[in-house]
Amino acid sequence: MTETVVTRFAPSPTGFLHIGGARTALFNWLYAKAQGGKMLLRIEDTDRARSTTEAIDAILDGLKWLGLDWDGEPIFQFARADRHREAVEQMLAAGRAYRCYATAQELEEMRATAMAEGRPPRYDGRWRDRPASDAPADRAPAIRLRAPQEGETVVDDLVQGRVVIPNKDLDDLVLLRSDGTPTYMLAVVVDDHDMGVTHVIRGVDHLTNAARQTQIYEALGWSVPKMAHIPLIHGPDGAKLSKRHGALGVEAYREMGFLPAAVRNYLARLGWSHGDDEIFSTEQAIAWFDVGQIGRSAARFDMAKLSNLNGHYMRATPDAELLAALKAALPHLPGGPEAAARLDATGRWPALESALPGLKERAKTLVELLDGARFLTDERPLAVEAAAETLLTPDARALLGRLLPRLEALPEWTAAAAEGEVRALADEAQVKLGALAQPLRAALTGRKTSPGIFDVLVALGRDESLARIRDQAQM
């Protein structure tokens, strides 16, 4: 019988879902989907001082925005503390753990001595074999793992390969603190086992934890899940990813106007590849994804590449879908709520959809798309940008004045009919088309660039278009 693959994403709710965490979630999600398995979600909220409800909500919201669903209800690690302590009792009973009464001062002295002698600071095992009769009555013990002191611990990693750590380099780690609270190392092992996790896919910064956690699995007599430690993400300059590179929370990418599908595509290519394919659907990513194809070297995050990829997705998205995506994003975009209210008040949503073919050719993000569509939401009198103001010369305003009655007399308000009148007037006035079309664009949008000017006329409608031209015309 084939084992059902179970992965898990296990963030700590001490901040927002950052881009590195989002990629870890994506890889777990893709592998589970590719193998017909499940991805579970565990909130590792044992750091009570730093865990917040706001961060939990932000993580869940970020995953939902990215389209990464999980199976079942989220598991909260802190609520399982009794189960973690139960596992420690099992190890104590089997002689695989012991009570340690070393004081904080003694531990500090061990650390200082080791540092002075040029050794890594490690617990010296002083309570490892002492009889229970030596236990002091004035303090509660911590519980430590009775780790093997000879031989080696091996992690056969699906990405990093065979990793061998001499057991002499690993000390007896704490499983339960003296106040009875479980440590991270213990809780992760017990939770992964109880949740039936078969594959642990996480950042390579956890690789050193893998050996210690393997020892806990063995002490409990449990099978160790397969592990895959994925490379870190660096900036385009090769330095550790920072805010200047794009190490932001996922919600920041939504606010910058990125499409979830584009972000998924881009994150999938950070450390994983399928030949030379750069642009692929989520369905293709699921069909192709294999942990063994993840590279070992650090991936490089490049905001410019993400923006270009997002622009491709916007151009490839059908207009109705893109409008729906924009509507969903408006509450999160700068100026989005105000734009939505104005579009509602003027009834110009259909006009916006009709303008999308021209708008999305010029935009890489939904923010740029909304900015390009500002002519639909701006109120009269338009604030004309300085560059556009230079187009509105006295001669240009006079031409607009001559154009007005022609447009007012149009029996049908269509792009073709409007274009015919503009071209006829340009011929009559013996000027190039741009000498009239450019001032017309400035009058209608307040800008030098916009979608096709005749499409703008239709999008604004007869009354609004004529009113804006009238505002700028010299008659």
Automatic annotation (TrEMBL):
Span of domain Glutamyl/glutaminyl-tRNA synthetase class Ib catalytic: 5-307
Record-linked Gene3D superfamilies: 1.10.10.350, HUPs
Keyword Ribonucleoprotein: no
Catalytic EC class: ligase
BP terms from Gene Ontology: glutamyl-tRNA aminoacylation
UniProt-listed Enzyme Commission number(s): 6.1.1.17
Gene Ontology CC annotations of this record: cytosol
Location in or out of the cell: Cytoplasm
CDD domains associated with the record: GluRS_core
Catalysed reactions listed for this entry: tRNA(Glu) + L-glutamate + ATP = L-glutamyl-tRNA(Glu) + AMP + diphosphate
HAMAP family per UniProt: Glu_tRNA_synth_type1 (MF_00022)
Recorded family membership: Belongs to the class-I aminoacyl-tRNA synthetase family. Glutamate--tRNA ligase type 1 subfamily.
Subunit field text: Monomer.
Name this polypeptide is given: Glutamate--tRNA ligase
UniProt organism field: Methylopila jiangsuensis
Gene this protein is translated from: gltX_2
